[in-house]
C-alpha cells in the first residue's frame, strides 16, 4: 500500500473566529512580556544581590531560567500563527518544539523536587544546612536536573518521530503529549511529598523557632508553584475517560505552558521579603544612576 509521509503539520489554532484573533494575540503578548520581565528580573536580582547568594535563591534563579525557556518554546510561535495565512509547522520544527517542551517540562518538575529537598534540609537539619547544601552540591544537582530532562526528552522525541505520520497532520501548538513529563514528574512529586512530610513532622515535634518560621514561609511560595505545575498535569491524565473534554484540555494546556511561568516569579516576589527588599534596592540604584 502506498503511503504519503507527512512533511509538515497544519496548526489548528486556538480559535477559528477572526474577531478573536486580535484579542488573543494581545493577551498572549502581554502574558509573554510579563513572563519575560518577571523571570529575567528574578535572575538579575539574584545574580547581583549579595544577600541572595544562597542555595534556595540559586535554585529559584534556575527555575526562572527554565520558565523563560518553557514559555518561549510555544508562545512566540502561537502568536505568529494567529495572523499567518499558512498555519503550518514543518516536521523538523515540530520535533524540535516537542523536544524543548518535554525537556523544559521535565526539568521544571525535577527542579521543584530539588527545591523541596532544600527546604527539608533548611528546616529539619538547620545545623548541617551549609554543609549539605554547599555550592558544589547545588551545581551538581542543577546540572543533573538539566541533563536528566534533556535525556528524557531526547528519548521520547526520537521514539515519537521515528513513527510514520500518515493519517492526520492536524495538530495544535498546545497539543503536546505530556505523558513523558508525567512519568518523570511522578517521581519528582513523590520526593516533594516525602520532603514536606518530614517538614510537617519536624515542625509538629519541635515547634517553630524564628529561623524555622522564616524557612517555613518560603515553603508556602514553593508549594504554591508546585500546585500550579502539577494540578493541570494530574487533571489531564489522572481522570476517567468519561470525563475527557478537548476544550478543557486546551485550557489546561494553555495554563501550564503560558500562565504558570508568568505566575511563578510573582508568587516568590509577593511572599518573599528578601526578594522585595532586593527589588526596592535595585530600583533605587537604577534611579540614582539615571539621575547622575
UniProtKB/TrEMBL annotation:
Membrane topology: Multi-pass membrane protein
GO cellular component, as recorded: plasma membrane
Pfam families referenced in this protein's UniProt entry, alphabetically: 7tm_1
Locations listed in the record: Cell membrane
Domain G-protein coupled receptors family 1 profile: 38-268
The keyword Acyltransferase appears for this protein: no
InterPro entries: GPCR_Rhodpsn, GPCR_Rhodpsn_7TM, Olfact_rcpt, Olfactory_GPCR
Record SUPFAM superfamilies: Family A G protein-coupled receptor-like (SSF81321)
Stretches that traverse the bilayer: 20-45, 57-76, 88-117, 138-165, 185-208, 220-238, 250-270
A GO MF label: G protein-coupled receptor activity
Source superkingdom: Eukaryota
Keywords, alphabetical: Cell membrane, G-protein coupled receptor, Membrane, Olfaction, Receptor, Sensory transduction, Transducer, Transmembrane, Transmembrane helix
Protein family (similarity comment): Belongs to the G-protein coupled receptor 1 family.
PANTHER family: OLFACTORY RECEPTOR (PTHR26452)
Protein name: Olfactory receptor
Amino acid at each position: 500500500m502506498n503511503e504519503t509521509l507527512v512533511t509538515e503539520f497544519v496548526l489548528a489554532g486556538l480559535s477559528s473566529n477572526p474577531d478573536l484573533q486580535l484579542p488573543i494575540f494581545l493577551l498572549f503578548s502581554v502574558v509573554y512580556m510579563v513572563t519575560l520581565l518577571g523571570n529575567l528580573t528574578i535572575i538579575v536580582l539574584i545574580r547581583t544581590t549579595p544577600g541572595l547568594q544562597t542555595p534556595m535563591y540559586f535554585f529559584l534563579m534556575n527555575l526562572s531560567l527554565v520558565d523563560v525557556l518553557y514559555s518561549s518554546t510555544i508562545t512566540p510561535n502561537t502568536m505568529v500563527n494567529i495572523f499567518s495565512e499558512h498555519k503550518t509547522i514543518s516536521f523538523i520544527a515540530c520535533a524540535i518544539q516537542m523536544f524543548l517542551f518535554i525537556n523544559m517540562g521535565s526539568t521544571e518538575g525535577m527542579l521543584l523536587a530539588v527545591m523541596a529537598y532544600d527546604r527539608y534540609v533548611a528546616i529539619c537539619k538547620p545545623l548541617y544546612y551549609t554543609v549539605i547544601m554547599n555550592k558544589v552540591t547545588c551545581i551538581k544537582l542543577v546540572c543533573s536536573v538539566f541533563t536528566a530532562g534533556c535525556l528524557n526528552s531526547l528519548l521520547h522525541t526520537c521514539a515519537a518521530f521515528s513513527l510514520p505520520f500518515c493519517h492526520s497532520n492536524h495538530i495544535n501548538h498546545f497539543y503536546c503529549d505530556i505523558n513523558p513529563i508525567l512519568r518523570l514528574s511522578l517521581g519528582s512529586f513523590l520526593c516533594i511529598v516525602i520532603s514536606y512530610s518530614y517538614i510537617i513532622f519536624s515542625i509538629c515535634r519541635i515547634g517553630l523557632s524564628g529561623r524555622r518560621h522564616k524557612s517555613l514561609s518560603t515553603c508556602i511560595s514553593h508549594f504554591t508553584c508546585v500546585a500550579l505545575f502539577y494540578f493541570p498535569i494530574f487533571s489531564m491524565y489522572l481522570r476517567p475517560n468519561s470525563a475527557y473534554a478537548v476544550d478543557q484540555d486546551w485550557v489546561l494546556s494553555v495554563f501550564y505552558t503560558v500562565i504558570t511561568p508568568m505566575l511563578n516569579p510573582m508568587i516568590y516576589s509577593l511572599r518573599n521579603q528578601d526578594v522585595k527588599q532586593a527589588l526596592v534596592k535595585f530600583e533605587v540604584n537604577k534611579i540614582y544612576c539615571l539621575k547622575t
